[in-house]
Write a structure and sequence with these properties.
Elements: E1 10-17, H1 20-32, E2 38-50, E3 53-67, H2 71-81, E4 89-94, H3 98-107
Antiparallel strand pairs: 1-3, 1-4, 2-3
Helix pairs in contact: 1-2
Amino acid sequence: MDTSQTRKYARLIYITAGNMENASEIARELVSKRLAACVNMFPVSSIYRWNEKIEEDNEIAMFVKTDSSRFEEIIKLVKSLHTYEMPAIEFWGIEGEQEYLDWIHVNSSTEEA
């Protein structure tokens, strides 16, 4: 597939998990199933309202880099593996250097390179 001819669109999906074990499990499944080209994970401190109480926790944040067409499949997989009752799953479109966006597309789609 000649990706230089067609502009591809990518998404950045932000997900938090309660610990590195769950975040790593989710990340490995996303990448192994070609739902994501890459997942970055890092510790964050979160303060949020849950069941009318203010909570403060250490979590693992994930940046999932994926093709724009994979969002629904990602939601389904994340919910099946996640330990939270309602995981945070947010997304943004990515604009960037075209060669990198092409790499994301090739590595997070079912199309052949």
